[in-house]
Amino acid sequence: MFLPSTSDKGKQKLSQVDFVRSQFIHYGVQFDEKQFSGKGTLLLRKMLRAGKLDQVPDHIKQIEAQLHAEWLDRRSVQQLLAAREEKFMVEKYFRDTNKTTKPFGISYKLSDHPSQWRLYDAVNKTNGLHYCAHDNLSTEIRTIFLGWNKNEVEEAARNYGLAEEEEELARGAEAETREQVTEENRDVEIIDLG
Predict the structure, then answer these.
(1) Which strands form 141-147's sheet, in the order they lie side by side?
(2) CA torsion through residues 119, 124, 126, 128, sign
(3) Orientation of helix 58-73 relative to helix 86-93, angle to 10°
(4) What is the top-level taxon of the source organism (predicted)?
């Protein structure tokens, strides 16, 4: 069996006895303590050659999946996005088609391309999930809508855009009214609604 050369970082890890022992425990490899000498790297190579470290045992995978699900359940959308974990946000809300049935949107600054691409990548890796973006050039915000039904997602983005335009028109009219009131009465506070 071919064993690849080890990087400097890998060599550092392999020099730690606890790391080597942990690998045996993680992979469920039973060994006799008499076989473990020094740092354990000879035994590690022996186990690698024997194929004992080729695959994590199913019971360990189940524990990992359970811990991951518990961790994910404790995270909000904001926490996942702040940590740049768009893939976990998509996993949390779109694990199956019954969890999130209606489209929802996530807003980014237009200039935040890396976050948007991480989200697009996560969506593209989720079979049947769709996205549609709405850009508000005046606020420089892109809202990306996600959902299972392509038509609903596109409609949500379109309607959001119309609602934003109506709000901007209303804010503009209200701001004009406030400016007029302010000119007449200097005690009135100007509130920036933008």
Answers:
(1) 104-109, 141-147, 130-136
(2) positive
(3) 90
(4) Eukaryota
Which contacts of 95-104 are long-range, i.e. CB under 8 A and separated by 24 or more positions?
97/128, 97/148, 100/147, 100/148, 101/148, 102/147, 102/152, 103/145, 103/146, 103/147, 103/149, 103/152, 103/153, 103/156, 104/145, 104/146, 104/147, 104/156
Q: Quick check: helix, strand or coil at residue 54?
A: coil
Cα–Cα distance for residue pair 47/29, rounded to 1 Å = 8
Quick one: which H or E segment has residue 133? Answer: strand 130-136
Higher pLDDT, 17 or 109: 109
Rg, C-alpha atoms of the chain:
27
43's CB contacts (< 8 A; 6+ apart) are 20, 31, 35, 36, 37
Q: pTM to 2 decimals?
A: 0.61
